[in-house]
Write a structure and sequence with these properties.
By secondary structure, the protein is an all-alpha fold. The chain has a domain of about 180 residues: MetI-like (MetI-like fold). About 80% of the residues lie in helices and about 0% in strands. The protein is built from twelve helices and two strands. Strands 1-2 form a two-stranded antiparallel ribbon. Helix 6 packs antiparallel against helix 9. The longest helix is centred in the N-terminal third of the chain and has 40 residues. It comes from Helicobacter saguini. It is found in: Cell membrane. It is a multi-pass membrane protein.
Length: about 280
Amino acid sequence: MEFKEKFFKYLFGLCAMISIFAVIMICVFLFANAIPTTIKIGFTNFIFGRDWYPDVELFGIFPMIVGSFYVTALAILFGVPLGVLCAVYLSKFCPPHIKKYLIPAVELLGAIPSVVYGFFGLVVIVPMLSSMFGGISGKCVLAASLILAIMVLPTIILVSKAAIDSVPNTYYEGALALGASSERSIFFATLPAAKSGVLAAVILGVGRAIGEAMAVIMVAGNQTTIPHSILDGVRTLTTNIVLEMGYAEGLHREVLIANAVVLFVFILIINMCFNLIKKEKN
């Protein structure tokens, strides 16, 4: 028994070390390539520049940063309330004979390839927006946000549901005993107790939304300008890398790697902000 415990202890430790090593190697690769490039073209020109013309070595990614923020923020604005409410329904209100069909459907939604979401957006959402708002192509910030909101739903629903299910039933029963209704007991006793898990679901949803490329390429319009409306075309940091890495050479390629570093730091800052919020609430 002692040998078995030591074996699994070292095995789990090795797995943890491999994961940490992988993250460190990715960071070293990205920053080792990005820092000299950023210094060469100028940090201010790179981050706050508004012109992206690789042919004449103008590499301003500020429009892509703004576009990523707009698309991700709108996707989370649409997806989080819907996902959390779906999780509450599946956990507390859904009859068992319906739940056995809904949960596999949600899991299937998470398994659909992103290119299929892109085709759906291109065939359904883009024409719908074009007809609703006459005079636009439909490929815009709003279309990309709607697609991403659908894509983050499975993550938010399943993780939030697991968090709500893990809350002891005594929270709900205690609220009922104090005279609260069933709905009030769930939303003011059970759900606040699951806030850490729900916040983790939101963090995962943000990571999925900001890191998505294929579906966004197909419906966002891919314009390297700052969008002034949710009906304007946009290019995000991820789509900028995917669209141009295939033929980029020299400084252009190095700038795209620096672009990836900005995306990496962007996600890191978002995660740190959510963790600070979670600590303050605890």
